[in-house]
Each structure stands twice: as structure tokens, then as C-alpha cells.
């Protein structure tokens, strides 16, 4: 788990550590020399995504709440966020932990607990990196969501619905997923096991809460029910494939030590690849009518993409594992979804209200983006793809594609545009 790369990214269940530095994060140049990968700090992300003008204008996520849902959580999350924030000159924020159901005591010898604590830490630190003044609510559930089918998902959906009903949270980020094909009944065309889990998202839509999910880390395929291999053909994963959820895919950023781009963004595809493709469960929602030549009659994912590549991973600090305290590089769309949750929190603050389901606004901005750079949507079209594990994926071309969705963002333009459109 703690060796240097290459490491196979774990498909949007747990953000995968790909390199370990110990006492302090290395510069991008040092990472390249030591591990042959770039690694990035929140300072670099803030420059890359053009966040600093928003902060200077007081748009920091203040007054907004990001809900993060993870199995088991991390016993050291507040301390770790405090250390992370201090290292990069940010003020920390209070993480309000909600234990949902019977959450077992953290056991550092349990690989499942360790894996989810890593995911939890990644989620919290990435959301905070983008929206430093947003309040964070971490929901810890007592059943692991891993493998296929409904395992652990009812607990997560119940937790989300409970918070929504109590008015807690403006945006929910989910760094987990299960392949649609692994749900009971899928093979016979009975999708009721997924349909019966959608109540939290319907509730979110009713209450104006934005819901995000990582699109996965296996390109156009995804893991089988046992989690040990990938399907040898194109599949998709839920909740990312749900039409009520904004699916966040993965890009690779090419940055210098200051966070300035040395090349345009490409598709995340190195020891893992950004999830994307057509849902076998959900038909094309109306907001994707403008991209029907790409998605056909199915729901297509992702909707939008953020940093996720191994070569360009994020520095994260943790101390939940007494044998491995310190700084590590984490990767995957499990990084991209919480990064984007911070963007939504900023837009909510600027709008002065929750934006709710942002799909209509997002695709309306996309429709204008070719003629109008002020939308802040940045097309990813360098010809890279999300082929993975022997399954041919999708290529990043001009306009919407199922490698990166509508593309990525320039936050100084995108946040005001989304606030206005939403």
C-alpha cells in the first residue's frame, strides 16, 4: 500500500496512495526525480484552477456546507486537516463528524478501515483546499461499500436522506461506486435494486442539494463484484451514472512548481483511468439532449472532470495509521469529486442560495462555451483517452465526450457563471 508507484488506482472506492514522503511533502521537481511522477499541493491547484481571484473577492465557501460520506471514517481527521492546512498557510475548519448506525471502533490492523480512512482524509482535505471557509460534515457509516451490488449503499443513502431532511448540507460528494452490472437483477433487465436506492437523490433534488459522485478509476470498464478484476467490456457505475448525480471524471494536470500549466489538461489514464461511458440502467436525461450525438439514448458520464491522475497526484497528510504517519500522494476520481464539491460550495455562496441539481446549468453553459469563454468551461481535447484494462474507451475530442464530459474549469469564470445560470 505504501510503496512508490506504479500502483493500480482503486476504483472510486478508496483513493489510492501512490507514493509516500513521510515528514514533509516534496516539490513537483523532487517527485519527478524520486518517483517519475508530478505531485501537487493545494497552492498549485488554486493557481491551476484560477481560484485566487475568487478568494480575493471573499468567495471562500463561507456559510456553505459540504457533506462527505465514507465508510468508517478516520479517528484523526480533525488533527490531520489542521496539519494539512497549516502546512500550506490555510486556516483550518471544523469537521463535524456524524456517525451513522453502528460504526465500529477504528482498527489500524483492519485493511478495510485503513483504506477508508485514507479515502476520508483525501475527501476532506481536497474539499477544504478549494473551499477553505466551507463547513464540512463527515458522515461515517458502519458498513463498507465495496465490491458489487447494494453492499453498504442503503446505509449511505439513509445517512444522506437524514441529513437532507434536517437541512444539513448544500453539496454532497461521494467517492464510491459499484458497477451497475453487479446489482441484483441486472442480468435479467430488472433494475429495481438500483431504482430502490435513489430515494436520497430524489430527496436532494426536492431540497435543492447538489449531489456529486466520482466516475470511477477503470476507464470505460469497472470492477466485477469480487473487486478483483474488471469487466472485459464497457460498463458503468452507480451512483455516478444516476441522472440526479453530477458525475465527476478525471484529468491529468501538467503544472510547474507554481501551478501554471506547461501543457493543456489530458485524460487521467495512468495505472487507473477516468471512468466514463453509457449507463445500461438509465436513459438519456433531457439535459443531455444537446450531446445526444455522443451519448445516444443513454445517460452518459462523466459530466465534468477535475484532477485525478497518478502523474499529478495530490499531497495528503494523515496520522490514522500509527505505522505510517505523514505525507502521501493520493490519486483517482475520489480526488476529483471532493475538489468539485468545493467549486459548488463557492458558487452557492456567490449565488446566495443552494444551486441544487446543476445539470441544466452545466449543459446550458457548455452549449455557450464554444463561442463564449466567460462560461469558464475549458474543453479537454488533446486526443488522449480512457481506455483501460483492455477495454477501448473514449477519446478527448472537441466538445462533450465520455472521457472528460464537458471538460474542466477555470473557476474565476465558471463559479460566477454557474451561480448566475443556476
Outline:
This protein is α/β, with parallel strands linked by helices. Helix content is 29%, strand content 21%. It has helices at 28-35, 42-48, 52-56, 77-87, 111-130, 153-165, 192-195, 199-207, 292-295, 333-351, 359-369, 411-421, and strands at 16-22, 39-40, 65-71, 95-100, 135-141, 171-174, 178-179, 210-214, 237-238, 246-255, 261-267, 277-283, 298-301, 304-307, 313-318, 326-331, 377-378, 408-409.
What Rg, in angstroms, do the CA atoms define?
Answer: 19 Å
Structural class: alpha/beta
Number of strands: 18
- Give the percentage of residues in beta strands: 15-25%
How many H/I helical runs? Answer: 12
Average pLDDT for all residues? 94
Distance between the termini: 41 Å
Which residues form runs of ≥5 with pLDDT under 50? Answer: 1-14
Q: Judging from the principal axes of the Cα atoms, what is the shape? A: globular
How do the helices and strands line up, and which of them pair or pack?
Elements: E1 16-22, H1 28-35, E2 39-40, H2 42-48, H3 52-56, E3 65-71, H4 77-87, E4 95-100, H5 111-130, E5 135-141, H6 153-165, E6 171-174, E7 178-179, H7 192-195, H8 199-207, E8 210-214, E9 237-238, E10 246-255, E11 261-267, E12 277-283, H9 292-295, E13 298-301, E14 304-307, E15 313-318, E16 326-331, H10 333-351, H11 359-369, E17 377-378, E18 408-409, H12 411-421
Parallel strand pairs: 2-15, 3-5, 3-6, 4-5, 6-8, 8-10, 10-14
Antiparallel strand pairs: 1-16, 7-9, 10-11, 12-13, 15-16, 17-18
Helix pairs in contact: 4-5, 5-10, 6-8, 10-12
